[in-house]
What does this fold into?
Amino acid sequence: MHNDEKQWAIQAQQGNSDAFTNLVIKYQKQVFSVCYRMLGTPTAAEDAAQEAFLRAYLAIDKYDINRSFATWVLSIASNYCIDQIRKRKVILLSVDNEKHSWMVPPSQDPTPERAVLDQEKQEQIHALLETLNETDRAIIVLQYWHNFSYNEIAETLSLSVSAVKSRLFRARKTMAKEWQKETILTPHPAHLPLERIAHESPTI
Amino acid sequence: MNHQPFETWILLETKLTPAQNRELLNHLRTCPQCRRLAQSTREITHLFKTTPTPYPLPGFTTRWKRRLNQKEQGKKNLITWVTLSTLTLTVILTMISFSTQIPSLSEHFPQLLTAFISLTTRWITFITSLQNIFSPLFRVGIKLIPSTWIFAFAISLSGITIAWLVTLSKSNSFFIRR
It folds into this structure.
């Protein structure tokens, strides 16, 4: 863990809320990203990210400073999102323009074509993630977007490594089937070559 | 056709030896199902990796701080309410326990009434004595002090009273507005 980060965590444990604010500034994008992928709308993601940081702040005494703060706070965020989905408080819908206008576009000056393409991709991702249950979705989000290893995912979601592998296998199979259905209905333009791509999986 | 271990290799993106890689490629040439699976998995990975990650709106930290303050204020309010409720409950319980004593009080009602009348009488006597002492002095003083001074004193006293009343009414309306 970075020294500054460790210092901020220690100061936050001593009751310095400004030190914790530095951690919020540093990790807001990662936490928001997890929440957005899990919940599907920027509004719900903002709310969940805020709540995750709030819970982290209130539980900062329980945080082990030798552990990665990112793993810890993302664990709080993903578990909160899982609870939210379970409680059916969040209605997962395909995203629309109004919801997207709420977000800052990642590129500073996207062309209209690029914006439309990005939005289509976001919709495809949401459609795929919606086919998974909340825990499998969290595993996919942590693995694809945050490059968590099997061990980190297991620790974050309180699962065994074998359970993570088995869920990942099942989740990817479900998404592949859904993808095939979609591409049969609307053929996907960008078919990639058949050769196996370099392995990007996290190692144990 | 047996799709294992190829399915696992494809879906878990297992690190393969060159021999395993060749074996997988051979299988993919003959198995359309695994080929579709491999292709879909690659396309999904490509989609996930190339789609930009959304960011929160600017001011996230400020909004978080506001939320934290609200939460802490809520906690303080809760503590206040719990304290007030406890006090109220204590008062109610005291009153209930006191009310059980009322029959015994009613038994002593004549004595209490006598004591009250006696106390009131003493107060009246005391005030009357004061009046008897100060009224001659006042009468003499009136004759000694010039009438213009008395008039000026009465006017200034009235002014002070009016100013006090105005201040009071303003401060009341201020608190009502708050």
About this structure: Chain A has one domain: 3-94+116-185. Residues 93-102, 189-204 of chain A have pLDDT under 50 and may be disordered. Chain A touches chain B through 54 residues (CB under 8 Å).
